[in-house]
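Action item from last week, closing it out:
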Amino acid sequence: MAKDTAVSKRLKISEAEQYMLLAVLGASAVLGVAISLVIHFVDVISFNTRIIMGEEQAIAAYSEVIKTTGVCRAPSNGKIYSDDDLKKCLPNSIEASEIPGTLRANILENLAANSALNSVPKEDNSDCINPETGKNYTYEELNNIYDEADNTEELSAASQLIKSCSALRIIPDALPAFKNEEALLASLNRLFIISNWEPESLSPSGTSQASETGKNLFSISVNLSIEADSGTTRSTLSNIERSIREFNIERATIEWGGDESLILHAQATAYYMGSSKVEKIEKTVSVNDTAKDTTKEKK
């Protein structure tokens, strides 16, 4: 009888130990799942935080570009453009005085009024004639037209008038924005006409290539051949030197010809800017802890 009682107690103790072991295992499993979920949620929160920070940085950079160029008026909060600010942005309705210190304001107020560029003779353009004076518009007159514009259409027309009739008109002639060999030869031919000389041959030579400056500047080589009296030759070279567009004579040979004429063979280089593009930057954010080291940028 006592033996049966002892066996019964041992069985009960063994069952209690099993229940206890199962309870411990269950608690451990629950704790493990809880820890795993906590780690997962921490990673998700950290990942989302990096995404939000990346979006905020992109918005800030985008806003800075808009403010710097003067495409829109300053944002309502002074820093970041909101959706409402962008919806209200009408570039052609903005006056230069509303965007001080921006690229657009500097172009319209400083570069357009540059006396050195404005000293270059104007081409015949009826749109640039002031009907009241019968002479070309001065920058002050163009600026008054711009300031007196009342609506978007008038501001757009005044802005176009400044581009066409102020010192800004010289910029495309001095440094074109693309390769155009025909326009280059036409510019040279005009210089020859001013010098009262008609060339026998005028042609580009070689292919355009990146210049040594390495700042999106490219070059076109041109062969020149001049055979005329010494006065005409000197006048032609002088006009080429005074041209608003750069013609860099790198090699030249001069010899006397018949009838006291000079024969000039030269190779000159003219320049133009390559096309500019907005750089697109892509950043890849990883959920791993090493995301800061593995961030990729594509342009």
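Closing note: Residues 290-299 have pLDDT under 50 and may be disordered.
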